[in-house]
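thread from #wetlab-drylab

HS: before we spend reagent money on co-crystallization trials with magnesium ion, can we at least see a predicted complex? here's what I'd submit
DV: go for it
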Amino acid sequence: MQDLSLARDLQTIMQIVDRAARDLTGADGASFVLRDGDLCYYAQEDSIAPLWQGRRFPMSACVSGWVMLNRRPAVIGDITRDPRVPIDAYRPTYVRSMAMVPIRARAPLGALGVYWSSIREIAQSEVTLLQALAGSAAVALENVALHDGLEKGKARAREVEAANRDLAERQQALEELQRQSEALSEFLAHDLRSPAAGIILAAQARLKKQDLPEPERRRWNAVLTSAEVIQRTALNLLDVASRQHGMFVLRLTELDPASLFEGVAEILEPLAASRGQRIELCPAMPRCLLRADEELVRRVLLNLVDNALRHSPPHGAVRLEARWLGPGWVELNVCDEGLGIPAHLRDRIFDKYARLADGGAITSAGRGLGLTFCRLVVEAHGGRIDVTDNGGRGSRFCVQLPAG
Ligand SMILES: Nc1ncnc2c1ncn2[C@@H]1O[C@H](COP(=O)(O)OP(=O)(O)OP(=O)(O)O)[C@@H](O)[C@H]1O
Ligand SMILES: [Mg+2]
């Protein structure tokens, strides 16, 4: 019994049980038969001469099948006189009498048989012993199944752990790649700033000439606008990065919203003109001042107006408004006549690299840094930025900043 309780595999259990069955009953052979679907599999035997080890028989054609189907012992003192015995299979063997019991009476897993080479009376006590042994064998078999299950569970847990480790390593590698690519973009942006500034200066100098022929003026305007886009993108990227590295120094001064708007409109006028659009300044600008970093707030407005123009239909208008919000706050509005932004995506467009794809989903392809920059700047001032519906037509970006 102790050996059985420690057994961890089927083979060991069958060997222990066959040996014990022979010892307990003084039999000449013992067979451990396993149920294999509709067949009886003679899996293991311990016998003075070979019987049927390794063979399979239909349940209906052998004594072990009868035992399993009827879930009770078969006690056969003379095999020649019992119709359950397939005599042709027994004739070549030494077997003359036998006893067979089911292993696990309720839903038999198999059968345990003992065989004698002489015709003999089989005592009930021997059958009872065999049944007790078969009962222990059933428990041992269930233990093995349980143990295998546990081992599989442990192995699965180890697999999951390894997969998690692998995932963490990949995540780390990806983050490192992301860091490297951001560092590269920062270098690139840094190196693009001076050439872009040079082109802007050259284009501005050209455009100052009074007698510039119209086609040439248009070309230089296009050069100027493109160079400004390069410069703005480079600056956005550098500022977003420096803010993330914890460096973002504000130089606060008192600013007049109306003159900020005028400066922005002047810079983006060529872009608007090339698209047949207008930039309109609210005629009744309230008399209020902001306390903010001029350069950064100007670039916030440049980004918002640039977006508004690019997302408005040709010949539409982009409107700039300022409102006194009450104690301490001023709101700057950039309103367009474009398609607007679906309400559920209004927060997401401020995320780094987020852009709206056709059909309204968010993608992270392309630049998508302008609004991230805007939010960082506004929040660095203690203010807030959000976007709402522009009265059923386009979007209204609202920037709240401290009043001066
Ligand atoms: N006025 C607007 N109307 C409609 N959609 C807008 C508007 N402004 C921004 N968006 C959407 O939000 C996205 C993010 O804007 P953001 O300015 O951050 O990036 P971008 O304009 O695509 O690139 P950049 O980094 O050059 O500014 C845009 O790609 C666009 O899909
Ligand atoms: Mg933009």
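DV: The chain has a mean pLDDT of 90.
HS: ok that's useful, forwarding to the group
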